[in-house]
Amino acid sequence: MRSRKLLLAQVILAVALAANAAVLAWAPTDRVPVAFPEKPATVAAARLKIKVTDSMYWLAFSKDSQSLFGAGGLRQLSQIDLATSKEEVILSQIAGFAPTTDNRSLVATVWVGEAREPHVLIYDLKGRKIAKKFALPKGTSYQPRVTPDGKTLVVAGEKPMITVIDLATGKAVATLDEKRVVQIMALSPDGKILATTHYDPMAFPVRAVILWDLEKRKILHEFPRVTGDSLAFSPDGKELAVGSLGRVSFYQVAGKFEMKYSLMLGRLTGSAKGLAYSPDGKTVAIVGALNGLILWDRQHNRLLNDFYGQTDGGCGVVAFSPDGRTIAVAGWTGKNRAIFLFDFPSMKKPPPKPCPDE
Fold it and tell me: Could you report the average pLDDT of every consecutive run of 10 residues in the chain (358 residues)?
């Protein structure tokens, strides 16, 4: 009885802290909450704000970290030169895109004609032209992901299935059937594991995060009743971060499949719509649907910094540059859409301890 009362007291304390805290963290092994004050550690402004024509849903850096690719609600793919802040629209009517690891081309899914038939375009970045085009199976055009070797494309669609396509031939080589519609997809760095989030009110369980073995075309593991609004693999592929309403959870996906750590986000962040690991895997950047950018030290599980109010509105996507020096965040500033660039090395300092009189 005493242990139950103690557990109830801990839950009440955790809820009270979460209501007035920026971040509440606990590890599944000890269930000990650690609260951080809502007051931002710094009020450092973004290094650069670039106004763009669209509200970006997807962002990706070029391999040399000199430009950004983005697409959003207007269904146009833009390239932004970070040295000049110049934006160039290179494709339209897109449903999604993914850069290849060699940085020579972009793979985009598009809708063609009045019937909005799904197609794949391979865009040659050096030649500034469409190098290849082929049709997709009907209903499959969302969340395109390209394996690191550049040979395979994985796409989701309106129906509860995932299609695996050979980019050399343009032919579907496999279908991963699922009973729930795919929401978000992420590929592991080696391209062997596909992580997907699902939601279907008519299925059971309603929500789930599933890990697929792409080589064997089968489910590796399922985390049932887990909501996923964003996904990100660690650079070594051993961990998967899952963002949801007020929470980011970290799952071990190598050897054992289990949750290792969880963050309860403060009320100012809302749902964790965007996640990105730093290239060295030591830091996770988190952006919220309401307002804010959080940097979490995953190596020591501590708050590095939070930047509430720096994007003047909701954020939906975040990306690290390959050189690890820049963080790009897409948000809204009134009627003007913008991309905010932060200098990562200057943001890594841990928050100072509060003064005794605070």
Answer: 48 43 53 42 61 85 93 88 93 90 89 86 93 88 90 88 92 84 92 89 75 93 89 97 90 90 74 92 87 84 75 76 93 69 77 41
Question: Which residues lie across from 164 on neighbouring strands?
Answer: 154, 174
Model pLDDT, residue 277: 98
- Listed as own residue / partner, the contacts of 327-333 with beta carbons closer than 8 Å and 24 or more positions apart are 327/276, 327/285, 327/293, 328/59, 328/61, 328/68, 329/46, 329/274, 329/285, 329/287, 329/293, 330/55, 330/56, 330/57, 330/59, 330/70, 330/72, 330/274, 331/287, 331/291, 332/55, 333/49, 333/51
CA distances from 21 to 31, 38, 265, 301 (A): 17, 5, 8, 16
Which helix (H) or strand (E) is 347 found in, with range? helix 344-347
All residues at 6 or more sequence positions from 358 whose CB lies less than 8 Å from its CB, including other chains: none
Q: In angstroms, how far is CA 91 from the centroid of its own chain?
A: 22
Q: What is the predicted pLDDT for the residue at 356?
A: 41
Name residue, tokens 């049709």. Answer: 135
Q: How far is CA 2 from the centre of its chain?
A: 42
Q: How far apart are CA 91 and CA 129, in angstroms?
A: 10
What letter represents residue 154's amino acid? V
304 backbone φψ class: left, alpha, beta (φ>0; ψ -120 to 50): alpha
Residue 8's SS3 state is helix
Closest Cα partner for 175 from 198, 159, 191, 192? Answer: 159
Candidates 39, 68, 36, 30; CA nearest to 52 is 68
pLDDT confidence of residue 142: 83
Show the tokens assigned to 23: 């971040």
Structure tokens at 321: 């540059």
What residue type is 200 in one-letter code?
A: D
CB of 274 closer than 8 Å to CB of 267: no
Please count the residues of the chain. Answer: 358
DSSP-derived pairing of the beta strands 86-92 and 94-99: unpaired
